[in-house]
Specification:
Serine Threonine Protein Phosphatase 5, Tetratricopeptide repeat; 15 helices; about 50% helix; ubiquitin-protein transferase activity; Ankyrin_rpt; Ankyrin_rpt-contain_sf
C-alpha cells in the first residue's frame, strides 16, 4: 500500500584486499615457509596467495625454505609454482641459499626442478672457495663442496685450490683437497705443480708428510661422480677465462684454456 514503506536490501560492496592485506598475507607465507610450518603453508596456498611474493630483500618463500634446508617445504613450493630461478635483490637464487648452507638434499631437489646458478653467482662461489682456503676455514669450504660446488677451479694464473692451500700453509685444507681428489701433478701456467711446491719447502715437514714421495694424487672418492671432465686439475669460469686471456701470453693462455700441458719456463 502507499502508506507502507518498501524496504530494499542493499548489497554490501565487495571489499577488495588492500596493500596492507597483501603485505600481511606475504608475511604469513614467508613465515610459514621459513619455519617449516607445513599445515599453515598449505592453508595459505589454498587461499590463492601469490607463491612468488617477496620480502623487502626480494627473497621468496623458496629462498627462505632453501636456506633452512626444509626439503618438504621446498618440494611443496615447487609443486605449487614457485619460480626456482627467481633472483633476489642481490642476484641470488634459491639454489645459492641451499649451496651456501650445505643442504645437499635441497640442492638436488632444486636442480631436478631446473634450478641453475647464474654466471655471477658461480664466480662468487669460486671467490668464496679461494678465500676459505686462504683463511683455513675448512668447514665453510666443506659446505660449498657438499652443496655441489666443484672444487675443480683454477684462478687466472692456473692455480688450483691445492696450490693455494700449500702456498698459505693450510695443512688440513690441503689434506681435505687431496682426499676428495685434487691432483697434485697439475701445473699452473708456469708449469709449477703442488708437488713441486711441496718439494721446494724446506721447513714445512707437515706439508711434506701429506705428499710423501711417489703419492701425489688424491683418492678421488668424492670427486669421481661430480667431475664431468676427466681432468682433475680444474676448470675455468667465463670470467676467469677472460682474466687468463688478459693476463697471460697468448700461447700460454691458449694451452691453458684447451687443457694442454704447459712446459715449465
Amino acid at each position: 500500500s502507499m502508506g507502507t514503506a518498501c524496504s530494499v536490501e542493499r548489497l554490501k560492496p565487495i571489499r577488495r584486499p588492500t596493500q596492507a592485506d597483501c603485505a600481511f598475507s606475504t608475511h604469513l607465507l614467508l613465515d610459514a615457509a621459513a619455519s617449516g610450518d607445513v599445515s599453515s603453508l598449505i592453508r595459505i596456498l589454498s587461499q590463492k596467495q601469490n607463491i612468488n611474493s617477496c620480502d623487502h630483500s626480494g627473497r621468496s618463500a623458496l629462498h627462505l625454505a632453501s636456506a633452512e634446508g626444509l626439503t618438504q617445504v621446498v618440494q611443496i613450493l615447487i609443486n605449487n609454482g614457485s619460480i626456482v630461478n627467481l633472483a633476489d635483490r642481490q642476484g641470488r637464487e634459491p639454489l645459492h641459499e641451499a649451496i651456501q648452507n650445505g643442504h645437499k638434499e635441497v640442492v638436488t631437489i632444486l636442480q631436478l626442478a631446473g634450478a641453475v646458478l647464474s654466471e655471477d653467482v658461480s664466480f662468487e662461489f669460486e671467490e668464496m672457495m679461494r678465500r676459505y682456503v686462504h683463511e683455513g676455514d675448512l668447514e665453510a669450504l666443506k659446505r660449498l663442496v657438499d652443496g655441489g660446488i666443484s672444487p675443480l677451479i683454477l684462478d687466472y694464473l692456473g692455480r688450483s685450490l691445492l696450490h693455494l692451500a700449500i702456498e698459505f700453509g693450510q695443512h688440513k685444507m690441503a689434506e681435505f683437497l687431496l682426499n676428495i681428489g685434487l691432483d697434485a701433478t697439475i701445473g699452473d701456467w708456469r708449469g709449477e705443480t703442488p708437488k713441486d711446491m711441496v718439494n721446494n719447502l724446506s721447513s714445512d715437514k707437515t706439508m711434506k708428510c701429506l705428499l710423501p714421495s711417489g703419492t701425489f694424487r688424491g683418492s678421488q672418492k668424492a670427486l669421481s661422480e661430480r667431475a664431468a671432465s676427466k681432468e682433475l686439475g680444474g676448470k675455468y669460469s667465463d670470467k676467469t677465462k677472460f682474466f687468463i686471456m688478459q693476463s697471460c701470453p697468448e700461447p700460454i693462455a691458449a694451452k691453458m684454456l684447451q687443457g694442454r700441458e704447459i712446459q715449465p719456463l
